[in-house]
Backbone:
């Protein structure tokens, strides 16, 4: 299926700086809306509104298409090797700078719940960084990743290739809850 | 299942401003990473790396869980009637202010690709706002909305409840381009 937005020419270099900034803001907005609506869909299911839940999930998907369109116009979609490098770079920033700084602030301000949320993310990003790194080496040699399952802890996002652990080593969630890809 | 999750995440407490700012930024980062990885997964599939595609989808899910944890810690998840109000307000801002401003700037700066990406989003947000407003009325009366399928154009995000149009009224994509929920 052809995506008219994939591989469109990059933004013009002259006079497009504000437009690029706007698209970046819009990408952030659409991405956050999509995640909120997915969370709201789960609440609606729990409260016995399955059709409202479906509406939230459908609209979350619509916001994802907008995010993809903005990202494409921003020339943010490269080859898989480039995408893996970009993904590795994002994880590295979060591990080296963002989450340690946020963890320190949450600790100083004594917010236990924020510390947990930040710590779970930081630990999982370390998994992701390592996995992206080894995957990139394969892809640069034109080799796909091995056909092994990927398991993700639905509480803390801990990610493992191969087999699920008995309990999540980070947050203790039982492996039965892990989502398999 | 919910109970198993609650034990792993401390109850959200009142947030000081800097901790809240940290979580907001982290929520924005995780949401965007989740969206980017889904797009990167499609790209990996197109290039013949199905297992890399699967990895991107799995890690996207992990980032979704982080986004969810941060949002929960910021007390951003409410009862469904309130979630619908929040969703409606977000769509209103995008319709009334954000996207019209971005559209003007894209026009002034002569960037038709950006203009199209913005226009597609703006059109869909108008549908979403109306759907959320209608749904909120129904939920406030203690009822679920009607059991009807919701379909989304995967090119522009046009969203329709019930029967599909022959082609997308916004971007003219054929019916086959709709994803149904």
Residues:
């Amino acid at each position: 299926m052809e995506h008219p937005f994939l591989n469109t020419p990059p933004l013009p270099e002259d006079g497009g700086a504000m437009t690029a900034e706007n698209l970046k803001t819009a990408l952030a907005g659409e991405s956050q809306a999509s995640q909120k609506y997915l969370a709201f869909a789960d609440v609606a299911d729990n409260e016995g509104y399955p059709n409202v839940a479906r509406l939230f999930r459908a609209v979350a998907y619509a916001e994802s298409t907008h995010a993809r369109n903005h990202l494409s116009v921003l020339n943010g979609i490269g080859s898989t090797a480039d995408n893996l490098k970009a993904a590795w770079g994002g994880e590295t920033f979060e591990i080296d700078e963002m989450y340690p700084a946020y963890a320190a602030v949450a600790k100083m301000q004594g917010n236990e719940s924020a510390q947990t949320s930040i710590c779970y993310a930081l630990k999982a990003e370390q998994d992701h960084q390592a996995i992206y790194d080894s995957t990139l080496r394969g892809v640069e040699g034109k080799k796909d990743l091995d056909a092994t399952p990927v398991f993700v802890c639905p509480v803390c996002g801990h990610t493992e290739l191969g087999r699920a652990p008995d309990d999540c080593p980070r947050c203790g969630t039982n492996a039965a809850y892990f989502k398999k890809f | 299942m919910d109970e198993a999750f609650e034990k792993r995440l401390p109850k959200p407490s009142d947030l000081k401003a800097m901790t809240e700012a940290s979580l907001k930024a982290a929520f924005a980062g995780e949401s965007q990473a989740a969206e980017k990885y889904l797009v990167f997964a499609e790209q990996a599939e197109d290039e013949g790396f199905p297992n890399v595609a699967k990895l991107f989808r799995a890690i996207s899910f992990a980032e979704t869980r982080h986004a969810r944890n941060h949002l929960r810690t910021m007390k951003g998840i409410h009862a469904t009637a309130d979630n619908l109000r929040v969703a409606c307000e977000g769509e209103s801002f995008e319709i009334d202010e954000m996207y019209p401003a971005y559209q003007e700037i894209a026009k002034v700066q002569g960037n038709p690709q950006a203009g199209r990406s913005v226009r597609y989003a703006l059109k869909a947000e108008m549908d979403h706002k109306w759907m959320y407003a209608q749904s909120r009325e129904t939920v406030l009366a203690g009822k679920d909305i009607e059991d009807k399928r919701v379909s989304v154009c995967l090119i522009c995000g046009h969203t329709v409840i019930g029967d599909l149009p022959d082609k997308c009224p916004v971007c003219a994509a054929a019916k086959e381009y709709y994803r149904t929920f």
Notes: The mean pLDDT of chain B is 94. Residues 19 and 89 of chain B are 24 Å apart (CA to CA). Chain B touches chain A through 114 residues (CB under 8 Å). The beta strands of chain B are 150-153, 159-161, 178-180.
